[in-house]
Amino acid sequence: MTLEPLINYFENLLPLNEEEKSIVEEAFKERRVKRRQFILQEGDICKHHTFVVEGCFRMYMVDEKGREHNLQFAIENWWIADIGSFYSEEPSRLYIEALENSIVLQLKKEDQIKLFDNSPTFNQIFRVLTEKALVSAQRRILQNISSTAEERYLDFLKRHPHFFNRISNVQIASYLGVTPEFLSIIRNKIAKS
């Protein structure tokens, strides 16, 4: 199993002792996911926190008109899950789809509870993860209500330059809340200035 990236990720937050490393090995399960395969679909209950070892994912919803709205992307060393469904155990309104062939490490809720029970270090680590996710969500909400589409695009470029060879302009436009045609206009305007 490919645990080294996850162990390194955790140790960048807090050092792990050998016992904690072995707890991680027991708790997480490796899964290989093919491009266009789902790890969550609308109506399912989200059963895992997913850590991306290799690959790229998107989390999105489909509105009543059939339009897709990307909420999150995840690449190596990122987490992805429908947190609301995971904790409430209610059906999800979201999809999580692999955009590339991928390798992930998944943690079930009951195994997460065991992590917390067996080591306070994991309580601290997951608290930090939750805080980071909350800060990111808050930043995105503020940006969506107070920034122009061009400002959102420039911010996306600045924060996530590593996405541009991996995610289509259609996906980026959906994430920014604009049409692909409008994104093209924005990109042309930026290129000319």
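Above is the first protein from milestone M3; the second protein from the same milestone is given next.
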Amino acid sequence: MTAASDKIDEAEPESVGGVLSWMRQPLTPRIVTTGSLTSHVHFLAGPADASGPVFVLLHGIGMSHRYFRRLQILLAQHGDTYSIDLPGFGATPRPDRQLSVPDYAAIVAATLKKMGATRVVVIGHSMGTQFATELAVQHPDLVSHAALLGPVVDSARRTIRQQSMALGLDSLMESPMGNAIVVTDYARSGLRWYLTELPVMMSYDLEVRLGAVTQPVLVIRGSRDPVASRPWCHKLADTAPNGRFLEIPGKPHIVQHGAATRTAAGILALTRT
């Protein structure tokens, strides 16, 4: 286990002009069906002559590709990127049954196979860290590295009430643009599907499953994140056989939106291990 607390200080674009410049970057959405379930894959190609990593971004509960947009644009400068809206989230159709974390990992693997991706760096945020971890365990030949951003659920706070309070506190620290993305994505996904998948998120034992991940793992948190605490993230980095820790100062839970440049730098450093 290699522990590190790298802190890269670089300003992020939060002005209206900066946001618009990010949002003008084109994305190519693709619809991929696995059995009766549909995912939306938002693809950005890397440099034409690049032989760099392939990045896969997995959102958390209630969310979509949209809060990965800044990070995806940065990573696409180094390799192909796939930001996946999983079934039930974003604009995808709602499944007719509850899906488990292993179900979602299997959907991601099947989707990547259809997209022709054979070896990827998987990046998950919040509940997406559970999907990323399970994918790495189920498909070790598919995943080369895993980056876990704001991982859940903290073993010291395993009740829905505690998680709700942490999310409420986080909303007071996120940027207006970050909160706008969260609110509109929650509305699109809908309360019913959120409540369907919430018990799945709460019951998944990330710590135990992460112990079976042999690939290099980077755990990233913002220093002001009330959802993924520092002790919890350090514990996860120590649990992974080949884990490390990165804290980005001054940022709350949606660290990949508020600190896209520093998050990308950490992930790119991981791929060189």
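Note on the second protein: The chain has one domain: 16-271.
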